[in-house]
């Protein structure tokens, strides 16, 4: 696309609303929450122009009140997945041939719908489905999702404007085609924004998509679908199926038209999918693009020069916001012995002050974990820590699933840097701390780098610039998103492109042009204006 041919609105980050007492935004989201809590919605499959209700349904419940059903959703059979693929391929030609600015307009409209008339509903749905307090819902379902849509349009125009050099006798240009086939998007429960962005980013570049949301996020995914429909995403461009993940994935990967996967979820599942793609590679029309963001065992390391209150705040925010269920959540920390008494005191005080309960009560900082499986896993590790001689729970350690899946924010201190909760991804509000000797700074950096298979996020706290430089260099492969004097969570689209390497994924940086490039297949076109008519070059002479 020629540079400057179109000018799209400059993307700016969506301001976060405060939801203060008596504010209109608080009243709006409370009203939406109450209405949706009692709505009992029925979510069909979305295939082409059809809403398909199979009659084979599952209940949607809130993690903080698991006996209360807020609706049902319908499960796909293999024939429905095959139908979704056929509908996507049928829609592909018209969508791929649509002028890019028309596609851009659709997703810019979607961003404005979320910023305005859908904001309270998508936040309330996220609070209910994923048990997020209003602040966590706002920065996710509204602000980050809006930012993904707006900035991706800007990134798309940057990509299209990137053109090769030409001379007076030739014109060189790049055409950014969508992939040949369809893209499969698998999205997680923990971020509504990710659930929307994974199918939308591929679609924005002209691709058609089969989207499978997490079973635990269908309630808020329904709002995303409504937004896309109102924004004008044509039928068949994004087809939505729910149900048995293995069956859906196997059916998708069996298609010769499978062209790529956009994935966020567990490392184990992603590796299995990669292996199946490899097994099927001779069957595909093109080499599939494999883009995935998986797990993390994210760290905080404090230097002896760091500010104890800042370290404590970084630990409790990084570990316990959204119950530690962010891919970027801190779950292991390394603290110098000289600062440990002050940090420990602040950690205990702050953690004990956190209220826990339903997100409907805006005074609750901690809500429920996503489902019983997660609850049971976390409870098991907490119980084991209570028994082990090399671990001590200094705050928290209680749990209750009688009403909702509530795990107290828990801090374990261990004398063993390889204790199980220092190495195992838990995805919950459990932080494990190893206290190191002040003169073991360099050895501890080595420990941080080599302890985990993951490399998603990490943070260093220090007032010593030499120590900061040393940590930044030593830990360059330990975290795709590295933070200096801040918690390792809260990446903002357009500011901190997100993604990690090692077992944490392919590091294709959602929230940047790098990710969108994965959904384009460039074609170079060279046009010669005066074509030679003799094969002889000058070196041959006359």
UniProtKB/TrEMBL annotation:
Pfam families linked to this entry: Aldedh
UniProt domain Aldehyde dehydrogenase: residue ranges: 58-512
Reactions it catalyzes: L-glutamate 5-semialdehyde + NAD(+) + H2O = L-glutamate + NADH + 2 H(+)
Keyword entries, A-Z: NAD, Oxidoreductase, Proline metabolism
CDD domains: ALDH_F4-17_P5CDH
SUPFAM superfamilies for the chain: ALDH-like
Molecular function (Gene Ontology), one example: L-glutamate gamma-semialdehyde dehydrogenase activity
PROSITE patterns documented for this protein: ALDEHYDE_DEHYDR_CYS
Record flagged with keyword Hydrolase: no
The UniProt record lists the keyword NAD: yes
EC class: oxidoreductase
InterPro entries: Ald_DH/histidinol_DH, Ald_DH_C, Ald_DH_CS_CYS, Ald_DH_N, Aldehyde_DH_dom, P5CDH/ALDH4A1, Proline_metab_enzyme
The EC number(s) this enzyme carries: 1.2.1.88
Pathway given in the UniProt record: Amino-acid degradation; L-proline degradation into L-glutamate; L-glutamate from L-proline: step 2/2
NCBIfam families reported in the protein's UniProt record: D1pyr5carbox1 (TIGR01236)
Stored PANTHER family: DELTA-1-PYRROLINE-5-CARBOXYLATE DEHYDROGENASE 1, ISOFORM A-RELATED, DELTA-1-PYRROLINE-5-CARBOXYLATE DEHYDROGENASE 2, ISOFORM A-RELATED
Family stated for the protein in its record: Belongs to the aldehyde dehydrogenase family.
Protein name: L-glutamate gamma-semialdehyde dehydrogenase
Organism whose genome encodes this protein: Flavobacterium xylosi
Lineage, uppermost ranks: Bacteria, Pseudomonadati, Bacteroidota, Flavobacteriia, Flavobacteriales
Gene name of the record: pruA
């Amino acid at each position: 696309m020629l540079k400057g041919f179109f000018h799209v609105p400059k993307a700016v980050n969506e301001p976060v609303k405060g939801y203060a007492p008596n504010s209109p935004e608080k009243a709006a989201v409370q009203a939406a929450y109450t209405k949706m809590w009692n709505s009992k919605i029925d979510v069909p499959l979305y295939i082409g122009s059809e809403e398909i209700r199979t009659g084979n349904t599952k209940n949607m419940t809130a993690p903080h009140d698991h006996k209360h059903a807020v609706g049902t959703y319908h499960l796909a059979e293999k024939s429905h997945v095959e139908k979704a693929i056929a509908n996507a391929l049928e829609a592909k030609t018209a969508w791929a041939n649509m002028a890019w600015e028309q596609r851009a307009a659709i997703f810019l409209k979607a961003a404005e719908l979320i910023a305005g008339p859908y904001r309270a509903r998508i936040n309330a749905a996220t609070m209910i489905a994923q048990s997020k307090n209003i602040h966590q819902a706002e920065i996710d379902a509204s602000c980050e999702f809006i930012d993904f849509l707006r900035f991706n349009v800007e990134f798309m125009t940057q990509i299209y404007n990137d053109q090769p050099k030409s001379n007076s006798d030739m014109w060189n240009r790049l055409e950014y085609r969508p992939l040949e086939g369809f893209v499969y998007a698998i999205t997680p429960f923990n971020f509504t924004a990710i659930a929307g962005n994974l199918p939308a980013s591929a679609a924005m570049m002209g691709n058609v998509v089969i989207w499978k949301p997490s079973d635990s996020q269908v309630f808020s995914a329904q709002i995303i679908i409504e937004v896309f429909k109102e924004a004008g995403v044509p039928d068949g461009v994004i087809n939505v199926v729910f149900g048995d993940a293995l069956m859906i994935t196997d059916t998708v990967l069996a298609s010769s038209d499978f062209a790529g996967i956009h994935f966020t979820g567990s490392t184990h599942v992603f590796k299995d999918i990669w292996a199946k793609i490899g097994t099927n590679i001779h069957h595909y029309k093109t080499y599939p693009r494999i883009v995935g963001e998986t797990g993390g065992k994210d760290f905080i390391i404090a230097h002896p020069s760091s500010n104890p209150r800042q370290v404590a705040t970084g630990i409790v925010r990084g570990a316990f916001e959204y119950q530690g269920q962010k891919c970027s959540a801190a779950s292991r920390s390394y603290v110098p012995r000289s600062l440990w008494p002050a940090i420990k005191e602040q950690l205990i005080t702050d953690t004990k002050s956190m209220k826990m309960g339903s997100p409907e009560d805006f005074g609750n900082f901690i809500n429920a974990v996503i489902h019983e499986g997660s609850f049971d896993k976390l409870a098991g590790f907490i119980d084991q820590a209570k028994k082990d001689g090399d671990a001590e729970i200094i705050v928290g350690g209680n749990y209750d699933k009688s009403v909702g899946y509530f795990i107290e924010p828990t801090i374990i201190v261990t004398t063993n840097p390889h204790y199980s909760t220092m190495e195992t991804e838990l995805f919950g509000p459990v932080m494990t701390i190893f206290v190191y000797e002040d003169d073991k700074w360099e050895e501890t950096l080595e420990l941080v780098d080599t302890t985990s298979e993951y490399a998603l996020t990490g943070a260093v706290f220090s007032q010593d610039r030499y120590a900061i430089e040393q940590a930044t260099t030593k830990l360059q492969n330990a975290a795709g998103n590295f933070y200096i004097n801040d918690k390792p969570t809260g990446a903002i689209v357009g500011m901190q492109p997100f993604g990690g390497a090692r077992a944490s994924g392919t590091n294709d940086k959602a929230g940047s042009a790098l990710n969108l490039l994965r959904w384009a297949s460039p074609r170079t076109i060279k046009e010669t204006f005066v074509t030679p008519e003799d094969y002889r070059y000058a070196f041959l002479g006359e």
